[in-house]
Amino acid sequence: MPKMKTNRAAAKRFKVSAKGGIKSANAYTSHRFHGKTKKQRRQLRGTSMMESNTIKKTYRQLLQK
């Protein structure tokens, strides 16, 4: 049986945390900042954890090494 390949597109966008959660960058951060409040812009910086378990399962399969 050959090894499972990691999906390289997913590997560049998502990281698995030490406890098994999945971190990703936030959406809505590329343009149109004049329509967002300072609070929104500040909170969209950095990364956030994925919430849904069904989504996590799908991305964990893509990131399998």
Structure description:
GO terms for molecular function: structural constituent of ribosome. Residues 45-65 have a biased composition (Polar residues). Residues 32-65 are annotated as: Disordered. One of its GO terms (cellular component) is cytosolic large ribosomal subunit. This protein has 65 residues and is α+β, with helices and mostly antiparallel strands. It has one domain (8-63): Factor Xa Inhibitor. The chain has 3 helices and 3 strands, in the order αββαβα. The protein has helices at residues 8-13, 38-44, 53-62, and strands at 14-16, 22-25, 47-49. A 3-stranded antiparallel sheet has the order 1-2-3. It is elongated.
Detail the topology: elements first, then pairings.
Blueprint: H1 8-13, E1 14-16, E2 22-25, H2 38-44, E3 47-49, H3 53-62
Antiparallel strand pairs: 1-2, 2-3
Assign the CATH architecture.
Irregular
Give the structural class: alpha+beta
Q: List segments where confidence is low: pLDDT < 50 over at least 5 consecutive residues.
A: none
What oligomeric state do the depicted chains represent? single chain
Largest sheet: 3 strands, antiparallel
Please identify the top-level CATH class.
Answer: Few Secondary Structures
Helix content: 25-40%
Order of helices and strands: HEEHEH
What is the count of helical runs? 3
Share of β-strand residues: 15-25%
Integer tally of domains: 1
Specify the overall morphology. Answer: elongated
* Overall number of strands: 3
CATH topology (fold) name: Factor Xa Inhibitor
Radius of gyration (Å): 15 Å
Distance between the termini: 14 Å
Strand order of the largest sheet: 1-2-3
Average pLDDT score: 90
